[in-house]
Specification:
single chain; 250 residues; alpha/beta; Glucose Oxidase, domain 1; 2 domains; eight-stranded mixed sheet; three-stranded parallel sheet; 9 helices; elongated
Length: 250
């Protein structure tokens, strides 16, 4: 039997992106998202973090994305509602100093994103394989740690994505105390309130204030749809100037 080799062209990729854009077309039914938070989260999974960031700037005229220093442990995209935790620097011999941090994990579940502020924590692992495994088992979609992370092989093995300032082998035990959960935290330059929407992909982490989540989503969907539609247009005409003139987006 003769085999035919099929080459994936740039046009094919553009077509696939166009199909994705159709699937992720914006809806004007804000009432649906307000009524069904799960549907809203699912819709956020179909838009890029960059589009959400642009939408926030257009709607709120504010910056709500985290520092470029935040890094993914492997390429991934995740969306969920923030469960916030704070760790305060404090040398101690208290075996219960971090018990609240663990209880916070056990209080969370499906569609949560664990967001941790570690005071002066670039060289301290705020979490590792044990905590990540617990989050994964409970249905968390990912974690964002303004501090270090360790046990990267285990986190990759279970497929649990984490944004952090980088990999470090150290421990927070004996050096930190639990400072609270579900409180406002400052994470990588951005304030995160409990229940805010976290959307993260290879471009970075964006925080959507929960009371503006629907409005931002609708704008992000439109921006995303326009950008995806522009790819094939640019490839066909070999001109980004013509595409920007046609679609009014860059």
């Amino acid at each position: 039997m003769q085999r035919t080799t099929k080459w994936v062209s740039v046009v094919t990729v553009a077509t696939a992106l166009s199909v994705l854009a159709v699937v992720a077309q914006p809806t004007d039914n804000a009432a649906l998202y307000k009524k069904d938070p799960a549907a809203m989260l699912d819709a956020y999974r179909h838009v890029e973090a960059a589009s959400v960031s642009d939408a926030i700037e257009q709607v709120l005229h504010e910056k709500h994305y985290m520092s470029h220093n935040m890094r993914l442990n492997f390429p991934a995209k995740f969306v969920g509602t923030a469960l916030t935790v704070q760790l305060n620097k404090s040398e101690n011999n208290d075996p219960n100093a971090l018990s609240g941090m663990l209880s916070a994990i056990d209080s969370g579940g499906k569609d949560n994103v664990y967001v941790m502020q570690v005071e002066d924590g670039a060289d301290i692992a705020g979490m590792g394989g044990l905590m990540g495994t617990a989050m994964f088992a409970r249905g968390f979609t990912g974690a964002v740690v303004d501090g270090g992370v360790r046990d990267i092989p285990q986190l990759r093995r279970i497929g649990f994505p984490v944004f952090s300032t980088g990999a470090v082998p150290s421990t927070s035990v004996g050096h930190y105390r639990f400072g609270g959960m579900n409180i406002p935290v400052k994470c990588a330059g951005t304030t995160v309130n409990p229940g805010d929407i976290i959307t993260a992909d290879e471009d970075g982490v964006v925080v959507v204030p929960k009371d503006k989540a629907v409005e931002v989503l609708l704008r992000a969907q439109k921006l995303d749809n326009t950008e995806h539609s522009m790819y094939s247009y640019i490839e066909r005409l070999h001109s980004i100037v013509a595409a920007v003139k046609e679609f009014g987006r860059i």
